[in-house]
Design brief:
Elements: H1 19-33, E1 39-42, E2 49-51, E3 58-59, H2 61-70, E4 73-76, H3 86-100, H4 108-123, H5 134-142, E5 158-163, E6 169-172, E7 175-178, E8 187-193, E9 196-201, E10 204-210, E11 218-219, H6 233-247, H7 249-261, H8 267-275, H9 282-294, H10 300-309
Parallel strand pairs: 1-4, 7-11
Antiparallel strand pairs: 2-3, 5-8, 6-7, 8-9, 9-10
Helix pairs in contact: 6-7, 7-9, 8-10, 9-10
Length: about 325
Amino acid sequence: MRLSDSRLDYYEKVYDQKVETFILYHIHSFNYFGGIPKIIKIDNLKAAILEANFYEPIYQSLYKNFAEHYGFQSIPCRVYRPNDKGKVESGIKYVKLNFFLGRTFSSEADVNQRLASWVENANNRVHGTTQKVPREVFIAQEKSELLPLPIQEFSLAKFGTRKVYHDCHVYINRSYYSVPYEYVGKEVEIEVGGGIVKIYYNNQVIAIHTELAESGEFSTQPSHYPKYKCLSETEYQEKYQAKMAAVGAFAEQLFFCLLTYKRTCWQRPVQGILALVESYSADIVNRSCQRALVYGAYDYQTIKRICQNGLYVLPLEFQQDY
């Protein structure tokens, strides 16, 4: 980062262009300067700008929140206009050729220590363009114009992207968090910090959760499911009762028997019986249910065998009130 008037510089080495890294070194720069510039001109990297547009750029949500917290205005450079950031580009050229070129380093700590020392010397030299000492110009003209540092430093959240699974959840830090079902299959942005999980789509918050403490847990908001998955137990049963009644009266009666005798696992047998209508007529399935009722055989496999073997045409050996 370079202050425009004085050319006071701040440099650190980084190994990636993640949004967290970009913000972190903004903070380090502000702390070094002892204040915040009112306007910061940035390049169009994805850590800050999701869609480059000179008039209405779309900012990365975390970076936008960071700028609002520190009170500065961020202005992206125009695309393919290197002169928009000429001052900082010349600074990068300077640190490459004057510091890194020809030097070898024994460790990361060695790089950090020598770079920090070099930055101090660079800020106290006579600048080649202005013919002034950057530190002196900064103290005399710029320092008083900087915004004060905030009392509370910005809480840097973890950020990333996730794809929404078919069950309306995303996987974050070994736990699962729900999002509205219309985003299934889409890629969303996630922000984790301060015990809160925020999920974004197109820069809009679509879900907020409290961060889970244990791995493998689910944080699910029922409203995120489609309506047919949010039925109460009674509504759920009524839904399948209506489907069995559409097959026939005996199929509906068998449904009630399954509710009684397979109270905790009635869904799969009912679904299997309903699936038989794809291979047999509703009348055949209904008559097969009648025969199963007579013999007290309340299971899917029995009804399937009756359909397959044509046993529904055989006369009942005795009458029973069912």
